[in-house]
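Worked problem 6 (solution included).
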Amino acid sequence: MASAIHGLGLLLVTAMAASGTIYYFINSGDPDAGGLVGVVMFIHLNLANLVWAYLIGHAGLALVHHFSKNLHLSEMWSLRRD
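Solution. The predicted structure is:
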């Protein structure tokens, strides 16, 4: 389950980077431009909101695990293979 959640975050950030790159190259200088520029920016902004929700939810659930004594933060951030 944890790998799937991390994969979701990686896909979200990758999609946001791709949409930002596309916007950079097709930008006409007008942030309110329509057409393809507007569609790409709409997708990019919605992905940004999803990334923030993912980040807050992910960190929040890590704190829930820590305070429920289920898994401590030091174990989550450990580089040791146990």
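Discussion: The mean pLDDT is 86.
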